[in-house]
Amino acid sequence: MTAPPRLSRYLQLNLNVNGKNFELNVEPRMSLLDVLRINLGYTGAKKGCDMGSCGACTVLVDGKTRLSCLTLAASVTNSKIETVEGIENDPKGKILQESFIKHDALQCGFCTPGQVISALFLLNTRKSPTKNEIKRFMAGNVCRCGAYPKIIQAIEDASKVI
Amino acid sequence: MVKIVKTKVEFEGRFRDEYVMVEGEEIQAWPGSYKGKLVGSPSPRLEAGAKVNGSAKYTHDVYLPGMLYGKFVRSPYSHAKVKHVDLSKALAQPGVVAGYAANNVPKLTGEKQIELFSDEALYQGAEIALLIATDEITLQDAIELVEVEYEPLRPLVDPEESLRLRGSHAIGGKDNLSGGTPRVYERGSVERGFSDADVVIEQEFRTQAAMHNCMETHGSVATWEGDALTVYTSTQSINNVRAELAEKLGIPLRKVRAISTYMGGGFGSKFGGGKYTLAAALASRALGKPVRIVLDRIEENLVTGNRSQTIQKYRIGAKKDGTLTAIQLTSVVNVGLEGWTADIGGPTKMTYRCPNVKVELYGTRTNLVSSTAFRAPGYVEGNFGLECALDELASKLGLDPISLRLKNYADEDQGDKIAYSSKALKEAYERGADIIGWKPGEEPTRRGTKVRAKGMASLIWWGGGGPPAYAQVKINTDGSATVVTASQDIGTGTRTAVGQIAAEELSLPLELVSVQIGDTVTELYSPGSGGSQTLASIGPAVRSAAHDAKSQLLDIASQTLDVAREAIALDSGWIVRKSGEKLSSVADLLDKFGGATVTGKGARGPNDPKHQVNTFGAQFAEVEVDTETGEVEVLKFVSVHDSGRIINPLLLSSQIEGGVIQGMGYALWEGRLVDATSGVSLNANLNDYLVPRSTDIDEIQSEYIEAEDTSNNIGAKGIGEPPIIGVAPAIANAIKAATGIRLRELPLTPERIYRALKKMEDWTSSARYF
Q1: Which of B83, B131, B321, B562 is the most buried (most CB within 10 A)?
Q2: Preferred mutation among B636, B653, B694, B701 to probe A, highest tally of A CBs within 10 A
Q3: CATH class name, domain A86-161
């Protein structure tokens, strides 16, 4: 009784993710998060709530943080999308990742990709952020393990190196 | 020669007997003076690199070829009869592969009927039907097309009402008082204790249900190869999930493999397989494809359990000098449908020297999801009541809160009257008081509408660990080592800590040690990651295994290199003479044997019956209350712990900070709001259920006193749960010191504080914290 998906339900679109172009057929309602994870295998961005409350799905769209669970994939076809898998090539991204490791700015690690992406956006926006600015920029990323003190410390430290 | 030893093992305060296989001589515990090269060092996590670049694969990240997606149809009512379920429209949708309800649950083998659905929903979110489809959007659309006819019935969600109606309205036909009788503990005679007292105080406190809200929601992916099942599952215990599936499916244990390589938080809520895992396994077998069932955030809040709501009544008697003569606690514990009555009386029975203690717990059933363990279950709730009541007693007697606690310092376990394996609580009080700047009788400081003051609380917990726990340490042909055990790392740092222990014992750099955990295929049983028991259980087994591997390697070296066994040692990957001369690298030695490896075996030894193992701590809060808004800011929190030897101080501080932050959430913001009339949850998501965020956090200082403890061979006690236990009372006591107002009900929301400050009447709403 398994019916094959009817192709008419599908939409053809192009996405640029981590510098690579992809041509995809997707259900028009698919979120950027699901396309990244299911169609493209970029599972770094996580589905913590699927309603824009937790920040685990945060990616960069044209350099700005975006909740990929609330973004239709079809709405970002002309944009540059960056996920946690791609930021090792960004010198600031690399420094941030090393700072997260050094300060133990993670526990279970599930929210970490979103935290790293939000932190990268912060460091691209503010040269020497204050503690309060860091807290404010990071307030959209929930860490239920409570790694916040070390996340804040890791970002502050990285900002000094960058 | 294997010896069998019977020993007592504790888990979250509950004891059981275990038989342990002990092979050879138990290795001696590191003495307190032992300073390790790796043990005690703040090494970053072994897997941190995989976590910061997104390559760590969690259960949510498992997408197998041909995989199908499953989702439950759940009751929107907290109590309703299910009259009729019609899946036909859903099943007619292209891409919908199967649908199951009470009348067609697939059978696996023979006659074994598995219960997934019931015809009466007894809590909101109860499973009514299950759909399986090729993708999530098809699935979501199809769920909307399922027609269920319900007959809504009256729910009972208020535990006091449930107890009152015990005779006339039995929930699901069972006694509303869980187990039929209250759970009673008594030592000495509280009547005598109260008649001996100069002062008797009576206090009532209420605590709310708190939700775990792990970042990775509960979920599993099941797949079969022939008659063998593999489940990828987000769990705190791969061995529990495996055993549960084998039992419920009626298949041998050897046919079930549970894998949890990375998992996104549990906090007590992920000890079993749950219906989602069972259903994924059944559907996968029936359909011949991998099946994935992952809960969404709302389901996570509705069906995975919670910390119990409680009502606690204390009566405490003391002499004028503060000596406790009696403590009596009577508590109602809302356990939901079938939950477990956590020991709210734990702190009352254990924290202080007191000859006369009585605790009565009324575990009460309601039409809410069954409660489950949540980080130090019972103790977090009970410590709020006890430690606030003690501050009231101190204030009545004109004593400093720390002096009152020191006056009643317990030098031995109060229940069994046996010595502690170690206890450094006095030192913890001193260190904490010093750091926070505690001054007896200190007046609050005011600045405009804001008032600052300090408060403190003690804590006691378990965390001694015990058998059974097994590990192997392999020395590989290239001279590296691999630790293997069927444990799991839930974010506490188990991988790193056991890696450090093995590296220490083998004298290897940590980079050459890898740790293979999270897979039952190794058959090396290890306990669930909970009860603050993981490290103290598996750590000693890993050390024994490494010791065994080292010993075998030296035997091989002695014969191969023709040197006396006593004259050689291992040092940084080399076989060396004890004088220091390098003889051969381990890799060169093993290379002579054509790809040989050496496997050391280790088992956690028995616990010492002469000692009680507990963890202790003192927690201090400095708060600022805005008297115009009722908002509280925790300016500084100091948490000082006695958890024995510290294997990794960096990871320890992460555990402490995380526990304190979760405790702040419990104290100030979190709580399940339920509509008292319909029994429906009003904040089953992360927008309305307020977990702490980065902007809520100020300074948190973690500290430890490294007490010598030889109850296991690594000297470590647990740290996962202790840091959450004293947070709420320390904050509530600080608010009292700042404002003079004793708040008795958690969470201490701005609204509640504002109303108390302005002496406004409590307004009634049908939205209540149940």
Answers
A1: B131
A2: B694
A3: mainly alpha
